[in-house]
Fold Alcohol dehydrogenase.
Amino acid sequence: MGINGFSTLSETTGKVITCKAAVARGPGQPLVMEEIRVDTPQKMEVRIKILFTSICHTDLSAWQGENEAQQVYPRILGHEAVGVVESVGEGVVDMKEGDHVVPIFNGECGDCAYCKSQKTNLCDKFRVNPFKSVMLNDGKCRFSTKEGEPIFHFLNTSTFSEYTVLDSACVVKIDSKAPLKNMTLLSCGVSTGLGAAWNTANVQAGSTVAVFGLGAVGLAVVEGARARGASKIIGVDLNDNKQVKGQAMGITHFLNPKDFGIPVHEVCLSTITYQSTCILSLFLWSLSHGNQDHELRVRPPIP
């Protein structure tokens, strides 16, 4: 057996790989399982064998072509995944064949003013960009059909493929003992919610947090608020079934807006310190009452 149980990795190093991928051919069209070619990684790039991948609403929005600027086809979507490094390009020294990794759509070069700032991690080179469809290194695609037609990239990741090529700045190593099938959540959902509470809101111990929408991201916000020491975490959702899971994650109170004769934010008015909105746009109300609001959602198309 080879590194980490993958015996064929070194056999493909330096070669073009033929594999299967789910290819988007047009807005809203069913993804097509196709046999594609994946080129070797170039300078500061990494080629990964994808082991598990999951679907995020951002993938759905791009697949539907909600924004015309995103309608670049054919394209391989996907950004939540976990995999193993198959090979690395010139200059990559912090990863090697066999490393377990997760892709990140919001990479960091570490050198630009934004990366060096304590106020943002929106890297000038590798920040999340749903319109980017080629590699930064040379402006070309690493995917192609068997006939040589280029297949475009998505969010620096393109994980709906057995193999993918990413900029090394968009790849993070994980512990080899971590349960791989659960690690796709680190690429987006869990890290988005946890980071909103831990980094963006910087929740302080003893504070009160309201989380509107107890889906996957909302529950990750709850976990982040709990870990930061919030004394009261109010979960707000229209589905009463979310209460049990919310309590397991750390909410101390549950509110269903349908149970009140007044807007639910008025119920929370006297207690909220931080608000994370995973469904509703209540940030103007929140800010007008001296609170912090952090809105986590897929943006609508730009007019």
Q: What stands out?
A: The CA atoms of residues 13 and 56 lie 31 Å apart. Helices lie at 9-12, 57-64, 113-116, 189-200, 216-227, 242-249, 264-268, 283-288.
